[in-house]
Amino acid sequence: MAAGRKELLMLENFIGGKFLPCSSYIDSYDPSTGEVYCKVPNSGKEEIEAAVEAAREAFPAWSSQSPQERSVVLNRLADLLEQSLEELAQAESKDQGKTLTLARTMDIPRAAQNFRFFASSIVHHTSECTQMDHLSCMHYTVRTPVGIAGLISPWNLPLYLLTWKIAPAIAAGNTVIAKPSELTSVTAWMLCKLLDKAGVPPGVINIVFGTGPRVGEALVSHPEVPVISFTGSQPTAERITQLSAPHCKKLSLELGGKNPAIIFEDANLEECIPATVRSSFANQGEICLCTSRIFVQRRIYNEFLKRFVEATRKWKVGMPSDPSASMGALISKAHLEKVRSYVMKARAEGAQILCGEGVDQLSLPVRNQAGYFMLPTVITDVKDESCCMKEEIFGPVTCVVPFDSEEEVIKRANSVKYGLAATVWSSNVGRIHRVAKKLQAGLVWTNCWLIRELNLPFGGMKSSGIGREGAKDSYDFFTEVKTITVKH
Ligand code: NAD
């Protein structure tokens, strides 16, 4: 390493309780500077074979522990994550580009909470039993862990989404091979350092780093991995479905969204406007649940638009470490270009860009000028058929359009291929229930956004996914159920 140059952070795979180097590495960038700062193992089939062997060996002992014993280990892991909160938050913010404030208040506390939550829920499941007295029979169900679970996660909420899969899988007695996104691998590697201290036996959690086409496909295609939980994009889900089909694998797919916010004329705009700015631009708009189509009832359309643009201009883009910043950098150069290209297409189609990209000036310190920053952008005068209203942009871009009637807005909100989340703003309780029921979305928030109850099902309809996650849903997914009949 030349004098004066910073050492690169070198990650290693974690297999069978050991950190192992890899024969090749890929570059990982700091989104706020555009510089390479970390090397991620470029794993493939060989590493997956080793991880399968370790997970297979660990399975009999781990799956034989009682839920109470596994619960103790999960709680210890939650404690250790909480003790390392600041270090993990700094790492997540640097790796992903999100603000340190968000990593500190949401990503890392929630990752710890995932272990604590499943540590608690695992000890409360019961089985079913029915009788058939006329045949002198009783029937009951038992659930057993599926085996080795393959867990694949995206880059937007790295540790938070990875632990949302690891925690229920191991709580139910499976052993796991996790593959985080190659763009954001650091906090998963840091998690590995805590496992031994928490009492996780070697081979129960294996983390293998690298790209989707190489290591992701090796994991998905492996015949000894019968269950795959995937969060990511719809095209990748298609590929995973194809690769899993010959083995009839159990699949959970949590995919993208094109989430509408529906704002009726009786909405409380004092609450709705700041919440809708947040739902559009939180985490740089890089949350699958972010709002990207805002339908506003015509009588309040102009007032809403004026106040919404004013509030968006106050949503500060800044260095991820700046405590006054609401938004940091986007994940990569390629993603920034993709997000910007949607704004250019909208402009070419005759839409108006009211603030943000190409309208306002972004001022950045010299060191960050090659970083992947972009201003929050509001588009209007855009047709429902435009790609900005149909496709997932997954960045800080939102469209605002007027509507007239309840019936019309439901039809338009449902007119995309996705069905993940929606928000409805109104003070009419009857209307809220009516509209929420008719929307094609796995989650509907009314007069709020992103309030989560982990016990209840999470997931999407249509191209937003297959299956649900949550206390009971994740337990059902990571176990096989058997019905036993006893004649007496
Ligand atoms: P992506 O599909 O490109 O990648 C997700 C993961 O899959 C990564 O780990 C990647 O390496 C891996 N992968 C890529 N190709 C693969 C292949 N051929 N085989 C196996 N694995 C492969 O998605 P992304 O860009 O990382 O994440 C953004 C997407 O995730 C958006 O569509 C977003 O809406 C979605 N998302 C959904 C949820 C949800 O809960 N529904 C949550 C967060 C993100």
TrEMBL record:
Spans traversing the lipid bilayer: none
Compartment(s) of residence: Cytoplasm
Keyword Oxidoreductase part of the UniProt annotation: yes
Active site: 254
EC number: 1.2.1.32
Molecular functions (GO terms): aminomuconate-semialdehyde dehydrogenase activity; retinal dehydrogenase (NAD+) activity
Main location: cytoplasm
GO biological process: retinoic acid metabolic process
Keywords attached to this entry: Cytoplasm, NAD, Oxidoreductase
Pathway(s) the chain acts in: Amino-acid degradation; L-kynurenine degradation
GO CC, alphabetical: cytoplasm
InterPro entries: Ald_DH/histidinol_DH, Ald_DH_C, Ald_DH_CS_CYS, Ald_DH_CS_GLU, Ald_DH_N, Aldehyde_DH_dom
Reaction catalysis annotation: 2-aminomuconate 6-semialdehyde + NAD(+) + H2O = (2Z,4E)-2-aminomuconate + NADH + 2 H(+)
Domain Aldehyde dehydrogenase: 24-484
Similarity comment: family membership: Belongs to the aldehyde dehydrogenase family.
Protein's UniProt name: 2-aminomuconic semialdehyde dehydrogenase
Lineage: Eukaryota, Metazoa, Chordata, Craniata, Vertebrata
Gene: Aldh8a1
